[in-house]
């Protein structure tokens, strides 16, 4: 029989041996200490792995980075938001992989605070 039962159903027991098990939040969730539960990562945040760590903010990678949904589970779900469109052209691109993702303006466009 398991010796570790997590008090909230959003927490998962992790560990091979019953005495080593910990109650942790699944990917896409962070631990909320006031309610002692796991809550979805907010829009523009993500968290991979199972832990009690807070979600990461996509905009820490690049100011134009966003996610399309809550509970994102990977840095690869951060993408560059189209900040402006001119004549139907795409003006910003997501470049790089993983933690090296960033946004670049299309050729002939320069980066300004509000977009390309």
Set out the fold topology.
Layout: E1 12-14, E2 22-24, E3 29-32, E4 37-40, E5 45-46, E6 56-57, E7 65-66, E8 79-80, E9 92-95, E10 102-105
Antiparallel strand pairs: 1-2, 3-4, 5-6, 7-8, 9-10
Written overview of the protein:
A hairpin with a 6-residue loop joins strand 9 and strand 10. The strands form 5 sheets. Strands 1-2 form a two-stranded antiparallel sheet. It has a two-stranded antiparallel sheet with strand order 3-4. The protein has a two-stranded antiparallel ribbon with strand order 5-6. It is elongated, with a radius of gyration of 19 Å. The protein contains no helices and 10 strands. The protein has about 120 residues and is an all-beta fold.
Rounded radius of gyration (Å): 19 Å
Label the overall shape.
elongated
- Helix/strand/pairing class, anyone? mainly beta
- Run of helices and strands: EEEEEEEEEE
Q: Indicate the percent of residues in helices.
A: under 10%
Q: In percent terms, what proportion of residues is strand? A: 25-35%
Terminal residue distance: 59 Å
Overall pLDDT confidence: 82
Strand count = 10
List keywords for this structure.
116 residues; two-stranded antiparallel sheet; 10 strands
Short description:
The protein has 116 residues and is mainly beta.
């Amino acid at each position: 029989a398991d010796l570790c039962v997590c008090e909230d159903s959003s927490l998962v027991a992790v560990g091979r041996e019953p005495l080593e098990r910990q109650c942790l939040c699944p990917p896409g969730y962070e631990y909320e200490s006031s309610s002692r539960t796991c809550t979805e990562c907010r829009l523009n945040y993500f968290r991979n792995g199972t832990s009690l760590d807070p979600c990461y903010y996509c905009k820490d990678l690049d100011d134009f980075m966003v996610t399309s949904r809550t509970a994102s589970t990977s840095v690869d779900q951060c993408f560059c938001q189209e900040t402006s469109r001119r004549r139907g052209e795409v003006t910003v691109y997501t470049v790089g992989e993983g933690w090296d993702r960033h946004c670049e303006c299309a050729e002939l466009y320069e980066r300004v605070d509000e977009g390309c």
